[in-house]
Amino acid sequence: MIELVGATVTAYGPPDAHGRAAVVTLLHPTTCTLTERRIAVIGANGSGKSTLARLLNGLVRPSAGTVTVDGLDTVRDGTQVRRQVGFCFTDPDAQLVLPTPVEDVALSLRRLDLAPEERTRRAREVLARFGLADRAEVPVHALSGGQKQLLALAGVLATEPTILVCDEPTTLLDLRWKRVVDDLLDGLDQQVVQVTHDLEAAARADRVLVVDEGRVVHDGDPGAAVARYVGLMTGGPPR
């Protein structure tokens, strides 16, 4: 269970004419408990939805308030939280760091305190499970964009987190690979929190949060949430 209580994120903006740094609020106080199996977060670019997502595993720390995962505080218990909450970025190049897929997945498995040969064996099993067995030794830079995103997900899921947070995981993919990743995410046993611009994906969620100008302006039924988002983006009803 993920719980946010008054979670707020601020940052310093450019100084004013007097040299005083302005404080910019990226996410206004947010309180909610996330228990549903599939949760989508939608909003315009720069609305604060990625900031919200990154709070959930401690990539971003709250400036005020708290974020907890099964009672673990993301600030005090960050290492334990990240063992439970995996995170997948929009661009897989942001998280693929070793030359080949088998090496990259084996690196993820280091936290399990396994012998090197056992990590390699398990990494190959993971790659096979994700349909990448024949790419184990191929240079990562030679993979297609879809294969890279699949590899990034494989590396995160190899450690069997209980929660997966994805920040626009299909934005850079063509239709074929988007469907592959969508099917993968839909079939996972883990709780999945997905930031997305894909309204079809949002409509399949159990719960949708709409973020606008750093505030959660709607939280609930997917149909109503998508309608609220469309209204915001098309100049519909006042906020």
From TrEMBL:
InterPro entries to which the protein is assigned, alphabetical: AAA+_ATPase, ABC_transporter-like_ATP-bd, ABC_transporter-like_CS, ABC_transpr_CbiO/EcfA_su, ECF_ABC_transporter_ATP-bd, P-loop_NTPase
Domain annotation ABC transporter: ranges: 2-238
Entries under SUPFAM superfamilies matching the protein: P-loop containing nucleoside triphosphate hydrolases
GO cellular component: ATP-binding cassette (ABC) transporter complex
Entry keywords, A to Z: ATP-binding, Nucleotide-binding, Transport
Molecular function via GO: ATP binding; ATP hydrolysis activity; ATPase-coupled transmembrane transporter activity
Keyword Nucleus among UniProt keywords: no
Coiled coil: none
Lineage top rank: taxon: Bacteria
Family (UniProt): Belongs to the ABC transporter superfamily.
Protein name: Cobalt ABC transporter ATP-binding protein
